[in-house]
Design goal:
Layout: H1 9-30, E1 37-40, H2 45-50, H3 52-62, E2 66-69, H4 79-88, E3 92-97, H5 108-117, E4 122-125, H6 137-151, E5 157-161, H7 176-183, E6 189-191, H8 194-199, H9 204-210, E7 217-220, H10 242-253, E8 257-260, H11 271-286
Parallel strand pairs: 1-2, 1-8, 2-3, 3-4, 4-5, 5-6, 7-8
Helix pairs in contact: 9-10
């Protein structure tokens, strides 16, 4: 049974909005945005499944400022407890990946309550079969517009995360990603997974610039161009020019979190080791 963990709207906005204002103010002072770095916990999913608290400790020790969730393990339904754990580790809830069904009907309010309790503003859907279905994609976009309108007064937002399928073209010659962007309002996040965009043969920088202000959060996933040698699936050692992507996010993307996601683990290293290397590689590119 769900126990409401709702926060007053003003408290939630103060909890989550002050940091964003600080980043924006810092950008004005220094001439360029300094985007905080988070990790998508799917990167270390085996560790998280074995001991979620220990996994959180390890990514905090690496120097990540936030985490994007892909499940809540022993904290499912325990918003205040998870918020305390994050606070103890000096981590922010950068966002979450959840199924669209958790935002619909009677599930909407419990979902909002839980994420308000942990200070999580960005509720991103990482996939839905209707997205690339010509007969259902318009209705899906309408649903996201409706959800965005409901979440906006709460200081929250929803959006969609791409893989390669979303960048295939429909009968009209447009990618499904572009079609979704055109059909949705600016309040719907376009969470570009820049690694998947690159793998699909597109330039992630161009997509950030094409939809200014809509890359509120984005994934930096190390990706190697097919057939390219001498590269490694670690940020800074792969095929993507991450410095250019980061610069676009900082200048026009409206990006509030860069989320590192590690899906492959080269050289027989552990997920934690590879994630640590990718964070170090990214920091080396953007310092």
């Amino acid at each position: 049974m769900h126990q409401s963990t709702d926060l007053p709207r003003r408290s939630f906005l103060e909890l989550t909005g002050a940091a964003s204002l600080a980043w924006a103010f810092g950008a004005e002072l220094h001439g360029a945005a300094r985007i905080p770095l988070a990790v998508q916990l799917y990167s270390v999913r085996r560790d998280a499944a074995q001991n979620f608290d220990a996994a959180l400790e390890q990514v905090a020790a690496m120097g990540f400022e936030g985490v994007e969730f892909a499940g809540y393990y022993n904290y499912a339904g325990k918003g205040p407890e998870l918020k305390k754990r994050l606070d103890d580790l000096k981590l922010k809830a950068a966002g979450t990946h959840i199924g669209l069904e958790t935002l619909l009907g009677d599930k909407f309010q419990p979902t909002v309550d839980f994420h308000q309790a942990i200070g999580c503003r960005f509720l991103v859907v990482p996939g839905n079969p209707a997205f690339t279905d010509p007969e259902k994609s318009k209705a899906l976009a309408d649903t996201f517009n409706e959800l965005a309108a409901k979440l906006k007064p709460l200081g929250m937002a929803t959006g969609y995360h791409n893989h390669t399928d979303e960048l295939t073209k429909n009968d009209g010659g447009k990618t499904f990603w572009d079609l979704f962007a055109e059909r949705t309002t600016k309040d719907v996040i376009l969470q570009q997974d820049c690694g998947w965009t690159f793998a699909a043969g597109f330039d992630p920088v161009a997509y950030v610039k094409k939809y200014p202000g809509r890359t509120k959060t984005t994934h930096f996933k190390p990706t190697i161009r097919e057939g390219e040698t001498g590269k490694k699936a670690i940020l800074g050692q792969d095929s993507v020019n991450w410095a250019d992507v980061y610069a676009a996010c900082a200048s026009v993307g409206g990006t509030q979190w860069v989320v590192v996601e590690q899906e492959t683990y080269p050289d027989g290293k552990t997920p934690m080791e590879c994630t640590r290397e990718s964070l170090a590689g990214l920091k080396g590119l953007i310092k």
